[in-house]
Amino acid sequence: MKIINWGIIATGHIASRFAREFPSVKNARLYAVGSRKLSRARSFALKYNIPKYYGSYQSLVNDIDIDAVYVATPHNLHRDNTISALKAGKSVLCEKPFAINALEALDMVTLARKKNLFLMEAMWARFNPALVKLQQILGKRLIGEVLHLRADFGFFAKYNPVHRLFNPYLGGGALLDVGVYPLSLASMIFGNPINIKSAAAFGKTGVDEQNSILLEYQKNKIAQLSSAIILDTDREAHIAGTKGSIKLDASWHRSLKVTVMIRDKNDIIYEFDEKHNGLHHEVLHMMNCIRSGKKESTIMSLDESLSIMKTMDTIRAQWNLTYPMEK
Q1: 304 in Cβ contact with 310 (< 8 Å)
Q2: Surface-to-core class of residue 288, CB atoms within 10 Å of its CB (0-12 exposed, 13-18 middle, 19+ buried)
Q3: How many alpha carbons lie under 13 Å from residue 127 in its C-beta half-sphere?
Q4: Which residues does 327 contact at the CB level (< 8 Å), separation at least 6?
Q5: Which helix (H) or strand (E) holds 197?
Q6: Are 18 and 279 in contact (CB under 8 A)?
Q7: Measured by CB atoms within 10 angstroms of the end CB, which terminus of the chain is less buried, N or C?
Q8: What pLDDT sits at residue 315?
Q9: Edge-to-edge strand list for the sheet holding 119-122
């Protein structure tokens, strides 16, 4: 089996998590890392035993020995980094959110399809065993017809106006950083909403620091979602159907426990170990797709990523939140 050589664009927190998980991925090699500073790339490469390093993102994607690129830059760079990698003929795994807005995401998807290259949003939660099991449970209709979802994702971050979480020039705010997780879960369960209502509280830099979202779907189905970067929330997910309910323990996006509560029956509990996280599983999935000739994921499709971006565009429009690069 051909070894797939990977390159990482950026050296921040999520790039480090990716690199730490990589040794457990079979038939793949973390081959190169690129940063805007050569010294940073060198330090990252030495830390994670990566053979090559580059002092620019473009130099990395130009390396002919790299097969796939992981884009781990701040939100505002996702489109440009993805497009440069696609133009260089690389398959791309792009961190969530897929882009700043749906128009950017469409540029990425259009080019990937034109060049017949694999592209996927790195919504790693979708590949965690608990969420895979959830999809199986829902497919068997164990709790009947699903009518309601309640999910949140909030954490406390110390205020820093130049940090990517609070900086509008980097696409900061709760919605794009962590709100995309419950939105993706709702999309997985219900599809596209037919009605969207939302509210947000804004901080000194003008980005949303917490928000609440209500989504309505066909057949009277509803999702209640929230996210925050200034406070800790329960980070649980509850799915209710006509015959029972399902609970994903905190933190639901990487939960180790799924409880199925069927009316008048004993609870069914599924527990998982923490041997590998979703980053590991999404890389394996992507490589399986590439080896089988697929250009898109069946778990996290490009059309679904576009749909989620459109939903976030609608939500931000309700708040009159526009990022500097969009003006």
Answers
A1: no
A2: exposed
A3: 21
A4: none
A5: strand 195-202
A6: yes
A7: C
A8: 98
A9: 52-54, 28-34, 4-9, 68-71, 91-95, 119-122
Average pLDDT, the chain: 97
What pLDDT score does 265 carry?
Answer: 96
What is the distance between the alpha carbons of residues 34 and 52, in angstroms, rounded to a whole number?
A: 9
Cα–Cα distance, 85 to 274 (Å, whole number): 32
Find out whether 210 and 201 touch, Cβ atoms under 8 Å: yes
Given a contact cutoff of 8 angstroms between Cβ atoms, the answer to whether 25 and 283 are in contact is yes
Which H/E stretch holds residue 4?
strand 4-9
pLDDT computed for residue 327 by the predictor: 87
Is-contact 212 199, C-beta < 8 A?
A: yes
Q: Is a pLDDT exceeding 90 seen at residue 275?
A: no
**Tokens representing 77?**
């760079």
Q: Which candidate, 90, 42, 96, 54, places its Cα nearest to that of 74?
A: 96
Answer yes or no: is pLDDT of 262 > 90. Answer: yes
Mean pLDDT of 244-254: 97
Q: What are phi and psi of 132, to 5 degrees?
A: -65, -45
CA 101 to chain CA mean position, Å: 14
How many CB atoms within 10 Å of residue 138?
Answer: 16
At 151, list the tokens.
């999910």
| Contact of 189 with 248, CB cutoff 8 Å | no
- Tokens, residue 275: 């041997």
pLDDT tens-digit map of 129-151: 999 999 999 999 999 999 999 99
Residues 313 and 306: their CA atoms lie apart, in Å, by: 10
What integer pLDDT is reported at residue 277 of this predicted model? 76
